[in-house]
């Protein structure tokens, strides 16, 4: 069983060993294993999620095609899948209804979960914030005075 284990480790580490000298190769392989294990595993990004009611919307910006659609926030889930824009029949100015926001903890980048229909059961995608154009909101100063009874 030890020879099989050594053979498998050697195969995945890209080294070769002869079956007649497996004891000396075991120590060599173990030193190689620690180097490759650290770089082979990729850590997933931690994301903080915030809900929305799903009625707010933004439109696709002129830069939307520079980005991709995902089923999860990019690099936050091992089962992440990419989707092409043609799967959403996308075009500049198309409404994207937002039902969730995700902020990556390390990079502080913002992602939005959107659907391209008002229907709550429509296909949902995660999209990077720069692919969206939000409506401009103007605020003005308002002075309020409160009268007290006296």
Using brief descriptors, characterize the structure shown.
150 residues; alpha+beta; six-stranded antiparallel sheet; two-stranded antiparallel ribbon; 8 strands; elongated
Characterization of the model:
The chain is an alpha+beta fold and about 150 residues long. Helix content is about 20%, strand content about 25%. It contains two helices and eight strands; from the N terminus they run H-H-E-E-E-E-E-E-E-E. It has helices spanning about 1-15, 20-40; strands spanning about 45-50, 55-60, 70, 80-85, 95-105, 110-115, 125-130, 130-135. The strands form two sheets. Strands 1, 2, 5, 6, 7 and 8 form a six-stranded antiparallel beta sheet that branches. Strands 3-4 form a two-stranded antiparallel ribbon. Helix 1 crosses helix 2. The longest helix is centred in the N-terminal third of the chain and has 19 residues, at about 20-40. It is elongated and about 90 Å long. The protein starts with a helix and ends in a 17-residue tail after the last strand. The model is unreliable at about 15-40 (pLDDT under 50).
């Amino acid at each position: 069983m030890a020879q099989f284990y050594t053979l498998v480790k050697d195969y995945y580490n890209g080294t070769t060993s002869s079956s007649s000298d497996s004891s000396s190769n075991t120590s060599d392989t173990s030193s190689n294993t620690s180097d490759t294990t650290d770089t082979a595993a990729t850590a997933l990004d931690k994301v903080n999620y915030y809900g929305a009611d799903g009625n707010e919307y933004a439109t696709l910006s002129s830069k939307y095609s520079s980005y991709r659609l995902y089923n999860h926030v990019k690099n936050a889930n091992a089962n992440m899948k990419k989707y092409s824009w043609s799967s959403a029949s996308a075009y500049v100015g198309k409404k994207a209804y937002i039902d969730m926001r995700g902020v990556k903890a390390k990079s502080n980048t913002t992602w939005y979960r959107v659907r391209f229909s008002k229907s709550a059961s429509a296909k949902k995608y995660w999209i990077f914030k720069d692919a969206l154009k939000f409506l401009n909101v103007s605020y003005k100063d308002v002075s309020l005075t409160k009268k007290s009874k006296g």
